[in-house]
Amino acid sequence: MNVPFHVDLDGKTAVVTGGSGVLGKEMAFALAACGAKVAVIGRSKDKLDIVVKEIKENHGKALAVPANVLSKVELQQAYQTIQSELGACDILINGAGGNHPSGTTTKDTLEPQDLHNVEEDTRTFFDLDEDGVDFVMRLNFLGTLLPSQVFTKQMAEKGEGVIINVSSMNAFSPLTRIPAYSGAKAAVSNFTQWLAVHLAPTGVRVNAIAPGFFLTEQNRSLLLKEDGSLTERADKILSQTPAERFGRAEELTGTLLWLADNRSSSFVNGIVVPIDGGFSAYSGV
Question: Is 181 a catalytic residue?
């Protein structure tokens, strides 16, 4: 894999949750390309194996470790496997996350007729399902907190380590339709700052990246029609993005490697870096 620049991660062990997703696997590839031994965590062994196979074909070292980030027992088992096969975790990427239709409205704003369910498929704020909202909050926030508990204690004992969480543009300003996801990612950003302060005396640094709009498997149907043209929502997003395009997964890797390398960012702690083509800077006017 081509990376924008090389940092020396030789001998380091990196753990990437959500490592079989579009963005997670790109981060895993970049870390491996810089010499890290990479443990890729996700729920699908088959998908993880594909990522690991590609890393190994490029002469990297990687391990597929199936685990649910919402199960502390499974994470502890993953920790033992990684410790045995690759060594102690030096870099933790909390990349697992996602949304759920039941925590999403179907329209940007509430219209009076929606209160009476005139349109059968309309889901308003009042129709949000608590289980769907709970799933989104747990997956994104608890799915960041639990791996941090499991993999960070040894970092703290050793006196150094790096945690990089994955937040979102929604954390800066909530997007329409996705209140649960926006709230969950805001929690991730807040937790990043809290944990950075809490762990600072141990030498463990905690930062986050906040991707703007990247095409992934989860959002593809929301942004592209079946013929490949843009949906109305995608048009609105790009109209607010000065770069006038979606991000490419590899465009995360420069910031990732900078934050992962202690020599490059040893005094950087508790920040959330937007990677968004200018979206967060644009007022819309």
Answer: yes
272: nearest Cα among 209, 213, 214, 204: 209
Bridge partners (DSSP) listed for residue 247: 214
Task: Tell me the pLDDT of the chain (285 aa) as tens digits.
Answer: 789 999 999 999 999 999 999 999 999 999 999 999 999 999 999 999 999 999 999 999 999 999 999 999 999 999 999 999 999 999 999 999 999 999 999 999 999 888 887 677 899 999 999 999 999 999 999 999 999 999 999 999 999 999 999 999 999 999 999 999 999 999 999 999 999 999 999 999 999 999 999 888 778 877 888 888 898 889 999 999 999 999 999 999 999 999 999 999 999 999 999 999 999 999 988
Catalytic: which of 79, 181, 213, 246? 181
CB-CB contact of 140 with 184 (8 Å): yes
Q: Residue 24: which residues within 8 A CB-CB, separation 6 or more?
A: 16, 17, 18, 40, 42, 93, 95, 96
Sheet of strand 91-94: strand arrangement: 61-66, 37-42, 13-17, 91-94, 161-166, 204-211, 272-275
What amino acid is encoded at 138 in this protein?
A: R
